[in-house]
Amino acid sequence: MSRLQGKTAVVTGGGTGIGLGAAKRFVEEGAFVYLFGRRQEALDAAVAQLGSSARAVRGSVTDPADLDRLYDAVKAERGGLDILFANAGTGSFAALGEITPEHYDQTFDVNVKGVVFTVQKALPLMGKGASIILTGSTTGVMGTPQFSIYSATKAAVRNLARSWAMDLRGTGIRVNVLSPGPTRTELALEVVGEEAMESLGGTTPIGRVGDPAETGAVAAFLASSDSSFMTGGEVFVDGGFAQV
Ligand SMILES: NC(=O)c1ccc[n+]([C@@H]2O[C@H](COP(=O)([O-])OP(=O)(O)OC[C@H]3O[C@@H](n4cnc5c(N)ncnc54)[C@H](OP(=O)(O)O)[C@@H]3O)[C@@H](O)[C@H]2O)c1
């Protein structure tokens, strides 16, 4: 398929996991992709996999100057932006009673403030037909022990898309949330661990964990005009985890 032929995409957290899975699919479908993240080695390895249709910009979504550098590069090299996958995220466990201000700030800074300014700073480059995709999570609609702060950030992301769909009325820019369930990535393995991850996957109706290629396929759908009548919505790619 070449639904994204000639399009320009930015994927935050594009060096690994769900972001890289989407970036691969975007490139396969014809897009040029900017990968944004903090670790140069991860970005370099991803660009080596993706080839000449990918370029890395190193930075943090929590630093406005880094986001300005990213979008300055996109503007200078490509002129505009068609697809923004605001996907970078972080999470760790802290039960009620053990939540520290640092845990709260760090999680909300990356997952909410980072998403807000990743999107707002991209807007001047985007126009009719552009698509913004935010990474939510099944945790945004579920209770998860020791994971309240992360889960609250993802519930916040869900509402950003609802409200921004209204703010974007008349612009031709769509915004939707892609909410993964348990998916095999660095973050998931680090936070949950291999064994718990497998057993979590076993509890989904499909009976396994997801693969970043599967979220990538849905990201490409949301990025393309195949989803032209969708905005303000949420698509779960969760093996049915939060659906039953
Ligand atoms: N895997 C799952 O089961 C699952 C389920 C639901 C939702 N999600 C969500 O999916 C998204 C991607 O996570 P993942 O599972 O694919 O894990 P991952 O492979 O660890 O991806 C997270 C990415 O975000 C980047 N990142 C983190 N903090 C950043 C910052 N301040 N600025 C720029 N980039 C930053 C990381 O790169 P650097 O460290 O190099 O910056 C990394 O590439 C997250 O939003 C996560 O909450 C994951």
UniProtKB/TrEMBL annotation:
Keywords: Oxidoreductase. The keyword Oxidoreductase applies. Residues 7-181 form the Ketoreductase domain. The keyword Glycosyltransferase does not apply. PROSITE patterns: ADH_SHORT. Pfam families: adh_short_C2. PANTHER family: BENZIL REDUCTASE, CHAIN DEHYDROGENASE, PUTATIVE (AFU_ORTHOLOGUE AFUA_4G08710)-RELATED. Belongs to the short-chain dehydrogenases/reductases (SDR) family. This is NAD(P)-dependent dehydrogenase (Short-subunit alcohol dehydrogenase family). It comes from Azospirillum picis.
